[in-house]
TrEMBL record:
Phylogenetic classification of the source organism: Bacteria, Bacillati, Actinomycetota, Actinomycetes, Kitasatosporales
Chief localization: other
Record-stated family: Belongs to the bacterial solute-binding protein 5 family.
Signal peptide limits: 1-35
Subcellular location: Cell envelope
Keyword line: Signal, Transport
InterPro entries linked to this entry: Peptide/Ni-bd (IPR030678), SBP_5 (IPR039424), SBP_5_dom (IPR000914)
Domain Solute-binding protein family: 97-525
The protein's name: Peptide ABC transporter substrate-binding protein
Amino acid sequence: MSTARTAPRRRRALVVGACAAVGVLLSGCTGGVSAPSGSKNEINYALPANFTPNWIVPIGTPGHLNTNNASISQVLWEPLIAYDGSSGEIGWNKDNSLATDAKFAADDKSVTITLGDRHWSDGEPITARDVEFWFNLVRENKKSWASYSPGKAPDVWSSFETIDDRHFTLDFDRAYNQQWMLANELSMIRVMPQHVWDKTSDSAAVSDLDRTPAGAEKVWAYLIDAGKKISRYASDPLWKTVSGPYRIKSFSTSGRVELVENEKYDGGGAAHVKQINLLSFTTVAAEENALRAGTVDYGYIRASDLGIKKSFTDLGYHVERWSGWAVTYMPYNFNNPEMGAVFRQLYARQAIQMSVDQKTLSKVLFNGTAVPTYGPVPQGQPSAFLSDEQKAEPYPFSNSAARKLLTDHGWTMRDGTMVCTSPGAGEGQCGEGVEKGTEFKMRVLSQSGSTETDNMMSALQSSFEETGIDFDIKTAPVNSVLSQTGQCEKDDPACKWQLSFFGSAGSWYFPAYPSGDALFASGGGSNFGNYSNPEVDRLIDRTTTSSSLDAMPDYSKALAEDLPVIWLPEPDYQVSVIRDGLGGFAQDSLANFHPAMWAWTE
C-alpha cells in the first residue's frame, strides 16, 4: 500500500508563485516550486500525480495506506525491522532499522529481538518499552488498524516479555515460517516514543496508560485524532520527537512537504542531504513541465513519453525504469447489493477476465513498461513463489469465449448488454442470487490524474462492450478512492461501490514474502471487496506456517484460477527522470522512497 499505492508503491526550497515564473501550469502545481538554486543541500522530489500526503502516524488506518505516506513516516520514525529493495535486492536494511538482531527459538514459537544503542531526537534512549507501547496500542485497537487481518499480527503474538532495555521476546501462538514472520509481521512493528505519546490529550501528563485496555483505547484515539490535523504536523510538539534521519520542517494540506535532517540521529542510515522537498502535482503533465523548467531533481514521465526521452536527457537528466514487487488489480465488491451476486459466480469472473487483453495493454498502452499479471504473485521478477499455472495465463483473452461463457450460463444479449434470462442455480442458469432481468452492468471508481489509467479504463470499457458487459467509469483522487471503496456489509450505505481501482503504478506492493493474508484471506485488513474462500484461507495459512517449497506456488495457482479480483497489467512503479549527479541509491522495488540514501555525487 503499502498499500496499496496506489503500493507500490520528488523536492528544494519552495517559493510562492514559482509555478507561474517557470511556466508550470498553475492548475497543476499545488505546492509551489522554486527555480533551481544549484544548492547541494536540497533535493526536490516529485510525488505521484494527484497524491497529497495525508498521514504520518506510524499506526495506519483505513484510507491512509498509500506507500508514499509510509515512506514519509518511516524517515521520521524508523521501523523495528526495515525491509527494502534499495540495494538492488529485497532484504533487511539494518542501517534504517532499530533492531540489530532477531533470534528465533528452535521450535519457531518465539523470537528474541535486540535493539541497537539508539536515542530519540530529544536525547532519551529507545528501549523495549517503546516497542511494548506500540504492541499494546495495536493489540487493543487491532480492528481499527489498517494492517490487521484476523489470525495475523497482533493475534499471532501471545505475549510480550521485556528482558532489559534493549532485549525483548515475542511468544507466538504456534510455530511460524521464519521468513514470513520476519519480513511480513515483525516488519510492521513501529517503535514509538512512549515517554511523549502515552497520554490522552495535549495537556495530559504522560503515564503508563497503554498497559490497560481502556487506557490503550484512549491513547489510540488521541493519536489518531492528532494525525488527522495535517496542518499541525510541523508545529505540534507531539511529532517533534523522532528516531529517523529526518524531521518535519513544513507540511502543507496542499501537498507540499519539507523534511530537514535530524541532527540528533544516531543510526546507520544518516541523511546525506540536509533538506528534502516533496512536491505534489495534480497531473503528470504539470510535473513534466516542472522537470523541463529544472525545478524537480527526481521526477518521472509517462511511459508513453519514453519516445521523447532525449528531450529530458538533453536537460541534464537520466531516465531509469523503477520496477516493482507488486500486482495490479481491480477488487470486486462481493457484498454490493446490485452486482455482488453476479461477482460471486466464478464463470462471470472468468468472462470478465477473458475480456482483458493484458498483453496488448502492456505492450501498447504502457509502451512495454508493464508485464501481464495472471495471479497473486508478482510476475515482473522471477521467483520460486510463482506457479506454472499463473505463468501460463489460465484465462486467455477472447471476447467470443467470454460471450459464450455467459450465454452458456443463462445470459442473453439484448441491445448490446447481457441480461440474465435463466435465473437459478442449476446447469445453464445464471447462478444463486442472480435475479431474472439482471443486466451485466459494472461501474468502477478509479484513480484520477493518470493518463495511463484513463487510457486503460477506456480500453477496458471497449473490450467489455464487445463481450456484452457495460462498464461505467467514475474518477476521484486516489485518497478518495481508497476511502470510498472499503470493506462493507450489504445493507451499509457505503456498500454501493462495485469495482475499485487505485493505482496504475501497482495496486499492491508486497513485503519481501508475498503472502496474501491481508489481501485475500477472509476478513483480511486490505481485503476491500470481502472475498472469501475457505480453501484459499487454508492455503494462505499454509504459506505463513509451513516451510514447504510448495506452499506459495499452491496459493499462486488457486488464486490465478479463482479470480478474487480482476487481474491487470503490472506497470513499472514509474519511469524516473533523475538529475545527473544525484545518486547513491537503487530504486526500491517495494515502492518506498528513501531520502536519507540520496546524495549529490558530483
